[in-house]
Every structure is written in structure tokens, then in C-alpha cells.
Amino acid sequence: MNYPEIDSSKLSEVMKIIEAAASLMEEKDCDSDAEAAKELDTLQKQLCEITGNENLCIKDYNAYWSYTSLETVAYSALFQPPAKTGMTDAQITELIQRIYKLDFDVPAKELEAVSEYFLEVLAVETGLHNVSDYIYCPNEIGLDLHADLEEITARILADSKS
User: Fold this and answer.
1) DSSP of 90-149
2) Residue 95 and residue 51: Cα distance in Å, rounded?
3) Is the whole model's pTM more than 0.70, yes or no?
4) Is the sign of the CA dihedral 88, 89, 92, 93 positive or negative?
5) Measured in Å, how far apart are the chain's first and last C-alpha atoms?
6) CA 83 distance to own-chain centroid
């Protein structure tokens, strides 16, 4: 499975929009300040327009710096939402292995965004919206904390069918 292509010429503009929105939300109460709310709405429309993704919510980028970098969230915003394609168990297994091992042929600066994207693909394909727990915190879904990849994969495949 190939990683999603983005139009990198849009990256800088997406970063500016997200940074402006995050700063605005940090400085002002966009729920009660009508002017700030209008400005945030304008940034929302700009983000959706430039990315072509109407499902993005500008408020999701509030305080992004507390968990990731501006470049990572901008890359993520440029990925189109994954759609279910009906992957086979073998394809799902391969994807789980790639996510677990971070086996993606991408530049380091894109690795986090690509990894998150493929977790979304896996969630869409399996119907398991907490699929990252299976891989990174298997004890939260009833496996041993140090479960091996084969156990994790078997559990994901089994739970996706139930």
C-alpha cells in the first residue's frame, strides 16, 4: 500500500492557516467573541478550500503544539480521508506490520502524519475506531502489554469480524 500523495505546494499555506487559527483560539474566546468567531470561520473555509476536505474542523488544531508539530498537522490536513476499499486479511496484516514497525518509505518529517493516516485507514477497514490501542497499548483491549505482533494482528482481525 502506497502512502497518500499530497500537493506539497499547498503545505506552507495550510501551515499558515492552522497557525493563525491556533493563535486566535489561544488568544481569544472564539465562542463568545463574535469577531473572533467570524475570523475563525473564515480560516475554516480557507482550510477546507485549499485541502479539498470539507470534513476538517479548524477547532481540532487548537493547541496542536501540545501533541505534535505544525508541519505534521499540515501534512495530515492535506491527506484525503481514507475510504473503505474492502482490504483482505492479508492486506490488513501487511498494513498492521508496517504501522507497527513504522515501515514507510517517506521522509522523516512526514513519518508521523503518514503513520496516523494509515491508522485511520486501518480503523476504516476494520471498523475498530480504537485500533491504535491494539498496536500501542494492547493491555487496554485485553492482551498482554508486551503482546507480540502476531497476537495483536490476530486480535484485530478477529475483533473486526465481530
Assistant:
1) HHHHHHHHHHHHT---S-HHHHHHHHHHHHHHHHHHH--TTHHHHHH-GGGGTS-TT--H
2) 25
3) yes
4) negative
5) 25
6) 13
